[in-house]
């Protein structure tokens, strides 16, 4: 199982490099079901792994000029603040168990996993549905800002990232394309930079907790994910990421349904 998990780490990075998102949403299931990491701790691990991997992946986009820094700040600052506060205050404040009705008990880890599965299904839908040409090719260098919507989206993505440990690229990229009118390549590069910043800062919010982190495991897993994102970035020059998104979306959908089924079976 661990070998499969480490292969999954490479595939996670590969997806981030190829399509700019989606791969990070596999990190928590890999950690929970293949490495048997507690769900709450897995969301913290995921923030570190996703943040570090995205930071490395964004380097090539910086060199290519694919990061729109003003957009990264407008979207990223509220997102960073909300993810940090979510990890520092909201996640520790969630009671465990969350609630119980008779013999029916909903534990905190189970609730986070089910929420994560719902996010996975939404992400799968965004990857499976056809991309409108207008959205794909929008952006001719004249970036337009819808400040209220971008700020609101940044706050929402930050809370989601803080709760479930996903990078949120499937939410960020459409927002950057549709709300900021960025070209797709700039949206991908800017998204990776935002994901890196908010994930790593969100992880810092966990450093004040009582959790003991396995840094050796985190380092090895992150290294494999980085190998994946470097390979994915190189392959993206030859393979169109949009052709891979639907197939990956179906895989994420199956994983999301699998998590819900597994957690429901545990209730019995």
Q: How many strands, which pairing sense, and closed or not: the largest β-sheet?
A: 2 strands, antiparallel
> In the residues, how many domains can be counted?
1
| Radius of gyration over all CA atoms, rounded | 18 Å
According to DSSP, the number of beta strands is: 2
Strand content: under 5%
Q: How many helical elements?
A: 11
* Distance N to C terminus: 25 Å
Structural class: mainly alpha
The helix fraction, in percent, is over 70%
Strand order of the largest sheet: 1-2
Q: Give the rounded overall mean pLDDT.
A: 81
Gross geometry: globular
What are the secondary-structure elements, in order, as H or E?
HHHHEEHHHHHHH
Which parts are unreliable, with pLDDT below 50 for 5 consecutive residues or more? 134-140
Structure description:
- The protein is mostly helical and 268 residues long.
- It has one domain (2-267).
- Helix content is 75%, strand content 2%.
- The protein has helices at residues 2-19, 27-34, 39-64, 69-93, 108-128, 133-137, 147-164, 169-179, 184-204, 215-235, 241-267; strands at residues 99-101, 104-106.
- It has a two-stranded antiparallel sheet.
- Strand 1 and strand 2 (104-106) form a beta hairpin.
- It is globular and about 55 Å long.
- Mean pLDDT is 81; it is low at 134-140.
Short descriptors:
mainly alpha, globular, two-stranded antiparallel sheet
Write a concise synopsis of the structure shown.
The chain contains eleven helices and two strands, in the order H-H-H-H-E-E-H-H-H-H-H-H-H. It is mostly helical.
């Amino acid at each position: 199982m661990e070998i499969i998990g480490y292969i999954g780490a490479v595939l996670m990075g590969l997806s981030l490099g190829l399509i700019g998102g989606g791969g990070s949403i596999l990190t928590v299931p890999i950690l929970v079901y293949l490495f048997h990491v507690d769900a709450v701790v897995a969301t913290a691990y995921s923030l570190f792994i996703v943040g570090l991997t995205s930071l490395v992946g964004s380097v090539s986009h910086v060199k290519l000029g694919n990061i729109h820094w003003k957009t990264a700040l407008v979207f990223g600052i509220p997102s960073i603040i909300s993810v940090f506060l979510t990890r520092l205050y909201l996640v520790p404040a969630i009671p465990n168990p969350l609630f119980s009705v008779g013999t029916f008990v909903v534990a905190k880890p189970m609730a986070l996993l089910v929420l994560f599965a719902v996010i996975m299904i939404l992400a799968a839908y965004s990857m499976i549905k056809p991309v409108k040409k207008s959205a794909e090719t929008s952006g001719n260098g004249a970036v337009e800002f819808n400040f209220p919507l971008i700020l609101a989206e940044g706050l929402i993505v930050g809370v989601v990232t803080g709760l479930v440990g996903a990078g949120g690229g499937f939410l960020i990229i459409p927002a950057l394309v549709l709300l900021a009118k960025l070209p797709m390549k700039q949206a991908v590069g800017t998204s990776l930079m935002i994901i890196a910043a908010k994930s790593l800062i969100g992880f810092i919010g966990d450093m004040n907790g009582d959790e003991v982190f396995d840094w050796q495991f985190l380092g090895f897993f992150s290294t494999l994910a980085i190998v994946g994102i470097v390979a994915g970035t190189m392959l993206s020059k030859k393979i169109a990421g949009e052709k891979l998104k639907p197939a990956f979306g179906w895989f994420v959908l199956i994983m999301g349904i699998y998590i819900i089924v597994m957690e429901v079976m545990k209730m019995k």
